[in-house]
Structure formats: structure tokens, C-alpha cells
Structure prediction request, 151 residues.
Amino acid sequence: MEQDLEPRDLPPLVDGELTLYLVERTLGDPVRNRVPQYRWDIKAGGTRVGNISLRIGHTEYVEKYAGHIGYGIDHEFRGHHYAARAVVLVLPVAASHGFRTVWVTCNPENVASRRTCERAGGQLIDIVDLPPEIDMYKEGERQKCRYRFVL
Prediction:
């Protein structure tokens, strides 16, 4: 299947009381290692609890360091598995763009994010060192866990 890397308009993604509302579609910026992406607000029972994004490109930077999916749950709403459920909702969008594999990365010490990846069905493949020339390294990060999701 050929990959479609152009973001498109999408309806809300729903899992029970959890709904993802598309709030932004952006084009890529190769100079800054950015690929096109979607960003959704995650709402539970109508209350915004966090956000999730899907990067729709296959660069070394995305697949090894940034990941295709990024998420954040607001502090007061953590512990309800919203991020894992949101990841599962986003995977079919990646598949609709022709993805066969999706990568999610997190810092090795981020136990909650690691559990999120596992709960959503990801498999830890490796832990990679960040190269000194990328932005994450310059911000103090040194390694990334790489979780693979096979679609």
C-alpha cells in the first residue's frame, strides 16, 4: 500500500466516554526534522484531559527518537489509562495512511509512558542513545526507549 503523508480532516475518534477531537493538522518542515502531523485534544466525559499527536512520516529522526505518536495527560487526570486508549484510537489513522509499523518513543526513566506503550500493545525493541546534534540531546535527554506497534 502506498503511503499518504498529507494530513486530512478527520471526525472525532471515540472509545466509550473518551473522545479525540482533531485540533490541528500541520505540514512538515524538513529543516527542523518535522513531518506532517495531526494533533487531537483528548476529552473524557467532555473534559479535556490531555492531547495526542500522530506524525505521518518516516524519517530516522521520527522512527528512532521522536516517535510517530506523542501524548500528554494533564497531571490531575493521570492514572486512568487515557493515553493508552488514545494511542489505540490513533493507530487506525496511521494504518489509513499506509503505515504498517508505528514507533512510539519515551525516556527510559518515564515508567508511566513505558506502561502506556505496553498497555496499548507496543513491544519494546531497544533503547537508543541520542546523537549530540539533535534537539532532544541539547535539551538534556540522552536515551529513548523504542516501542513498535505492528498494524
Notes: Residues 87 and 120 are 6 Å apart (CA to CA). The chain has one domain: 13-150. The two ends are 13 Å apart (CA to CA). Residues 13-150 form a domain with the Aminopeptidase fold (CATH 3.40.630.30).
